[in-house]
Design goal:
One of its GO terms (cellular component) is plasma membrane. With 608 residues, the protein is an alpha/beta fold. It contains 22 helices and ten strands.
């Protein structure tokens, strides 16, 4: 069993090094002939450095210099082609181990804003920490961290109501939950006033003092804040290195090159100005400097010592405990993801109730024109028109509701998946566990109002009226998930969905006589949710109707029974099982396709 006393165990001799790190962004395009061209853009150029336990290292540079890119590369959370050596104590470290041993505090925290600080930390701890840790221990760890980071007074405050400084401290707390030996922070002081920024850097120093490696990128820091760092890595636009070494020696290095910082001038701002004005010269002079040679010698010495120790003692024991961490199972991941989504839905209950009221109003507006529908020749068109309105409204509402809400969570979940918090499959399944009951309940309410207000004309009972509509809703929610997973934004998804839906409802059977459709186009109806839903409702509505009164004028056309109504619209009375099966097959196939696209996006999309 994990013991609380193990927290805070230091790896005081830990040295994190990176040598000749290069990162390429890879993109591919296809021309009209289908020929694929691959292009590579170099984001980082042979960047090197080291950070020792107990010290605070800064990465600084103008906008576009690659500060965030370097941090993401060092944490091995970036996409693209990564080259160079990233090592701990002279030993190469793979992506899986690096994610377990490090915490990454992003510049902009993405989270569910309806959760409180305590709920957010509890969710993160339950998935990030060793699964042998009990919930009671997790509670104690969270309380201890909140006390350390001065978050006790806002533990029950929702994340969306926190100040900038409080949110930064919450982000720090999340990454400190598993007590990682390496902490990387992306611009933790950006957007904060000088006092809040100083508080955050002081917290980073206290964390480093516990024997941790702490690296943070900073942008235009105040003079006092810059001097709180021990080491600094300076990058120029384009991802090239202009300096690495002690903060105290940076002024002397620039002075040797002829760039003398005025006595009362902010040295950090002065360095940024010179790096913007003379990037190439600064990079070349650094490669020729004693600082660069000393850095490479230290890294080489660590590698040499590491090889000797590995031959004699094998793997460093301090690394082994991170390999033995018991991660959350798929069931555990699903449980906590469902818990968070359900809590988010509950906190948005006012919004949900407003949507439901609109849904009820729509049901009343649809049903009122059909309140006096009778089972006669005129009533046939009214009943079919009502059925079509119900099916169409259900399909569009459920599909586009998912299409508009699902992409909103994409940035959050891509980052959490990239951090190894959970896998794509548990998230997708947990989403279905929330979406399906919601879609079913909404549809039952919607169709029930129409059934009781408009009247269940014909012999179709309540269940026969509601059931096919619910199946349509389930299939449509899968369609919305699939389309939204395929594209990065709702606008693009809608551009594809609109023409496809237009063709689908054209082949529903209400506007087009299906029996007259040419053979080479007749297969399209089997891709239409509108066709399956409307045919199923028509069969259940009319299959037990043996007689329909004809008009007194014998010259007027007359449809004598329910079977003739079905045939009149091109439907077959034996297709009920086919229709319901078709909708359920669409549900499974569309969700499988949606998951495949979602999983691909989670692998290819950049986490930061």
């Amino acid at each position: 069993m994990y013991e609380l006393s193990e927290r805070g165990d230091t790896m005081s001799d830990l040295v994190f090094t990176w040598e000749n790190v290069c990162l390429y962004a890879v993109s591919s395009k296809k021309n009209l002939l289908g020929k694929k061209t691959i292009s590579r853009l170099k984001l980082l150029h042979n960047v090197s450095g080291l950070a020792k336990a107990g010290t605070l290292c800064a990465i600084m540079g103008p906008s576009g210099s690659g500060k965030t890119t370097l941090l993401a590369a060092l944490s091995q959370r970036s996409t693209g082609i990564l080259q160079g050596d990233i090592e701990l104590n002279g030993r190469p470290i793979d992506k899986n181990l690096m994610i377990r041993m490090s915490g990454f505090v992003p510049q902009q925290d993405l989270s569910f804003k309806t959760l409180t600080v305590n709920e957010h930390l509890h969710f993160m701890a339950s998935l990030r920490m060793d699964q042998r840790v009990s919930q009671l221990q997790i509670k104690r760890i969270i309380e201890s961290l909140c006390n350390e980071l001065n978050l006790l007074n806002c533990r029950r405050t929702r994340l969306g109501q926190l100040s900038g400084g409080e949110m930064k401290r919450v982000s720090l707390a999340v990454q400190m939950l598993p007590d990682p030996p390496v902490l990387l922070c992306d611009e933790p002081t950006t957007g904060l006033d000088s006092f809040s920024a100083s508080q955050v850097v002081t917290l980073l120093r206290s964390f480093a003092a516990k024997g941790k490696v702490v690296i943070a990128s900073i942008h235009q820091p105040a003079s006092g804040i810059f001097e709180m760092f021990d080491k600094v890595c300076l990058l120029v636009p384009g991802g090239k290195q202009a300096y690495f070494g002690d903060v105290d020696e940076a002024k002397a290095h620039f002075a040797q090159l002829g760039y003398i910082c005025p006595q009362e001038f902010n040295s950090a701002e002065y360095f940024l100005t010179q790096m913007s004005n003379h990037p190439d010269r600064l990079c070349q002079k650094f490669e020729d400097s004693k600082h660069y040679r000393t850095l490479l010698k230290e890294i080489a010495a660590l590698k040499s010592t590491s090889r000797q120790c590995t031959l004699i003692y094998g793997m460093d024991e301090s690394f082994l405990k991170f390999y033995s961490i018991q991660t959350a199972s798929t069931i555990t991941q699903m449980k906590w993801l469902i818990w968070r989504s359900a809590l988010d839905l509950y906190r948005n209950m006012q919004k949900f109730m407003f949507k439901m009221s609109i849904y009820v109003l729509t049901a009343l507006l649809i049903s009122l024109p059909y309140t006096r529908t009778r089972l006669d020749q005129e009533g046939i068109q009214n009943i079919q028109g009502r059925n079509y309105s119900v099916v169409t409204e259900t399909i569009f509402t459920q599909a586009y509701a998912v299409m508009n809400t699902f992409p909103a969570e994409i940035p959050v979940l891509l980052r959490e998946i990239g951090n190894g918090l959970y896998k794509p499959a548990p998230y997708y399944l947990s989403k279905l566990f929330i979406l399906l009951p919601k879609a079913i309940l909404e549809t039952i309410l919607f169709s029930s109002i129409i059934y009781w207000v408009a009247g269940g004309s014909g012999d179709a009972g309540f269940f026969s009226f509601v059931f096919p509509i619910v199946v349509c809703a389930v299939a449509s929610s899968a369609y919305g998930c699939c389309i939204s997973a395929m594209f990065e934004n709702t606008r693009t998804a809608s551009l594809l969905a609109v023409p496809f839906d237009f063709v689908s409802y054209t082949f529903s059977g209400l506007f087009l006589q299906l029996s007259s459709v040419p053979l080479y186009l007749s297969w399209i109806k089997y891709l239409s949710r509108f066709y399956y839903g409307l045919e199923a409702m028509t069969i259940l509505q009319w299959r037990d109707i043996s007689s329909i009164p004809c008009p007194e004028n014998k010259e007027l056309p007359c449809i004598e029974d329910g079977y003739k109504v079905m045939y009149n619209y091109g439907y077959h009375p034996n297709n009920l099982l086919l229709d319901l099966s078709g909708l359920m097959i669409m549900f499974f196939v569309l969700n499988i396709v949606g998951y495949i696209f979602f999983a691909r996006r989670s692998r290819k999309s950049s986490t930061y």
